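Q: Hand in one record:
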Amino acid sequence: MKIKIAMFLLIIVASGKAQWFTQNDTLSQSLGGIFLLNSQEGWVVGDKGIVYHLTSAGYHWEAEKGLPVSENFNDVSFVSAADGWCVGTNGSVYKRNQQGTWNQLNSPTALYLCGISTISGSNQNIHLLWISGFSRTILHSSNSGVVLNFQNSTIGSAYRDITFIDQNRGWIVGNSGVIIRTTNGGFSWSEQLSSGITVRLYGLYFANPDYGWAVGQSGTIIATTDGGSSWFSQSSPTTERLNAITGIDPLHLIAVGENGTVILTSNGGNTWIAESGFTSSFNDAAMIDTENYWIVGENGANYYSEGTIQFSEDSIASNERFEIGDTIVVSFETTFNSFVDIHYSLSGGNNWILVKEGLQAYPGSYNWIVPSTTSTDCRLRIRSTTKPQVETISEPFKIFKKSLNITAPMAGDTLIGGEIFTIRWQESNVTTVSLWLKINLTPDSVIIGDNVTASDEQYEWEVERVIQSNKCQIRIFETDGDGPGDISGPFTIAFDPDAPVIMVDVNSIEPIKGQDLLITATITDNNPTINHLLYRMGGDTTYRSQKLISSGVQNEYNATIQAREGDDFAINERGLEFFIRSKDTSPDSNIRVYYTDENPQYLPVILDSLHHEILSSTPGKDIYQMISIPYKLDDTQISAVLDDLGPYDPHKWRLWMWLTEDEDYGEFTKVKIGDFSQGRSFWLAAVKDKFYSGAGQSFKPDTFSIDLDQGWNQIGHPFAFTVLTEDIFNTSGSP
């Protein structure tokens, strides 16, 4: 079975293809913030005192108690399931207790509070809080919010978002592109080096002490890789205001904003891809890992994404065919799915068979060996390992098996040399086949038929006239040599004892150019025969047929080939190739005995002289002439053939050859271009007007004078196919 690499791609990118689900479609109040504690639990806050506790991966929403409807909450943060805080309008700060009830904390301000960041303290019951708001408001607590104190900053105005990565290092963003930083827990704040941004910044996220991002008006995205000492802009796919940004590491981030804006990156923001299909404005986002993330916003909008798996435009084509044993390279990418399972179905998806379980989604490649069961409706499925509802299923494709089985001849059969025998086989999914004959069970074989249409399932074979053997075999295989094949059992090829006996005295035939040629054959047979002479000019590819007529002498038959002037099959200097075919006409026989066309008899032509007129020069043009050396030279070396021109001298003669692989001409002194053997031709320019080719075979063995025209002449060999003189000697303005 041949191994064929058949590749199709499963490309899954964050480009409007994520699978989004609304977990609570009963809400109408705007949602301002979300915090996920882990993959199973989180909280959402919003207008009119809304706080919901999310459990069971968000499938269950429970309204929390103790929050007045007069409050609109903008942000929420937790350090554990028992310790969480939310902030909102009118300086409101609320803390959740272990019973799930929220209690208001004493806030030293009534200003609008925008963001909150929390860090676990050294004592599990005492935690650190930082809160940002309008009018340069920064609140801090070192005792879980029991006491909230102002921290001083004189930079900017409204502080829109705040984040801390440990007890000392934190950042704030706000209006007019302001970014401030602390390295001592907020006891002092300093402005970062200019970000070059003057628009309002609404969202902030730091993955570690070095890598951070901020987003804001007009789709602004800026990033830092040195802890904020310098900031640079990233290309944004939107001009809508971005309200929040978050992530799980320096590569995987999500930002949300106005009018349904949701953008994702998996390379740290080098490229941001916009999701589509949303109309609500979004205020916050959260990610727990690459497989779970949420977005919340106006009018109760809340969506949970479980990642994407989809086929690309280059995916497996509908009804594409794969052979059993082929290797299909399944390449894919995925967002928010770390592991995938691969299945296939032989029944259009009714039943699935596991191929690979828990395959890492990166780098996203798997070599699948096509199974050994055929199917006309096979499917391939890629499914998230942890979220089986996230999957993609391929278009239907076919699995097939190639097969070839010889049905005739069978082992023990006897075939007669010269008989027409029908080789038969059965095939499946094979286009063309080659047929070979093996004799005496040796590795050597001779071709019978090539590129035969496999679906014909038969081939008319004229049985070889071989030395009698009972160890012959027919071998059949797919033409390209890599597919299935078969070989018959041993059979016998025998002679017909009553077959005609043919004799031709080739030495008695003396063909002369321009004269009729008489071919005489002695054919002895016990039954009446039909005899034909098949002949062609030397080098032609097809034979002509002429019936042999009895001469009146017993067993003697004649055929005359007439030499008519201008006839394209007249006897000429190329000589004659021929064989004789005799068909036994007895009722029970279909025997043909002949000199095979694979090894025909050859008659050279005796020539007194050989000369062609060359074309005369045309004023203003170079004349190029194809001249054939009309026989196989005894010495084909360039130096031997062109010795009349003297030693190589570019001022006296030059020889070039077209080099197919280089697509350029090469001069024989600079590149290896062979000699004057058959199949090669050269461009020759010489000061002398002729040279002598030297002696050769198949003709009267004297030298042959080749006349040269002005300019370039193409010197070749006798063609292996019929070429008329008028087709050779043409003038041209360029070589």
